[in-house]
Design goal:
By secondary structure, the chain is α/β, with parallel strands linked by helices. It has 4 helices and 10 strands, in the order E-H-E-H-E-H-E-E-H-E-E-E-E-E. It has a single domain, classed as Metallo-dependent phosphatases (Purple Acid Phosphatase, chain A, domain 2), CATH 3.60.21. Strand 7 and strand 8 form a beta hairpin. It is globular. Belongs to the metallophosphoesterase superfamily. YfcE family. GO terms for molecular function: hydrolase activity; metal ion binding. It comes from Cryobacterium arcticum. Pfam families: Metallophos_2 (PF12850).
C-alpha cells in the first residue's frame, strides 16, 4: 500500500497568519496522512485539520496551550507502511542534532520535527532521516513559506519534496 504524506509544522494560526494558505489546504486534501510537528497555537486549527484531513497525527509545540496539550502528545511514535516514524516539536540546536536524535530515538527510521521554521533534511550517523518542513505561515529568514510531501510504501520513504508556498 502507498501513503501520501504531508508534513507541516509551525502553522502559528492565528498569531502569524489568519488562516493556512489555499495551496496548503489543497495539499491537505490530496494527502492520505497529515503530520503536524507542533506550534498550532489555536485549538480551532487542530479541529479544522482533523475534520478536513483523511488522517492526522500531531504533537504539541512550545507555543501550544493547555487545550492542545490536552489532545496531543509531546512525542509521537507511529509505524506507517513499515517505516518507524517519531515526531517531536523541538530537537535543540542544529549542531550535533543528528547524533543527539540517534540517542533519543534509537528505534526510529524518520524523525519529523519543527520549531526552527528552517527546512531540514539530513540522515543521522545511525541512518535515521530527520525532516523539518519549515513553516507555511512564518518563513522568518527563509526565502519562502514551506511544507514537505513524501510517499511511504513498503518500508521505504520516497519522493521527499520541499514545497514552497506560491499562493495565498
Amino acid at each position: 500500500m502507498t501513503t501520501r504524506l504531508l508534513l507541516i509544522s509551525d502553522t502559528h494560526v492565528p498569531q502569524r497568519a489568519r488562516r493556512l494558505p489555499d495551496q496548503l489546504w489543497q495539499a491537505v486534501d490530496e494527502a492520505d496522512l497529515v503530520l503536524h510537528a507542533g506550534d498550532w497555537v489555536d485549538l480551532p486549527l487542530f479541529d479544522e485539520l482533523t475534520e478536513r484531513s483523511t488522517a492526522l497525527l500531531g504533537v504539541y509545540g512550545n507555543n501550544d496551550g493547555a487545550g492542545l496539550r490536552a489532545v496531543l502528545p509531546e512525542i509521537m511514535h507511529e509505524s506507517i507502511e513499515g517505516i518507524r516514524f517519531a515526531m517531536i516539536h523541538e530537537t535543540g540546536p542544529a549542531a550535533g542534532r543528528e547524533r543527539r536524535m540517534d540517542a533519543v530515538f534509537p528505534d526510529t527510521d524518520v524523525l519529523v520535527f519543527g520549531h526552527s521554521h528552517i527546512p531540514w533534511d539530513t540522515v543521522s550517523p545511525g541512518g535515521m532521516r530527520l525532516l523539518n518542513p519549515g513553516s507555511p505561515t512564518d518563513r522568518r529568514r527563509q526565502l519562502a513559506h514551506t511544507y514537505l510531501t513524501a510517499v511511504a510504501e513498503n518500508g521505504q520513504l520516497s519522493d521527499v519534496t520541499l514545497v514552497p508556498i506560491t499562493t495565498d
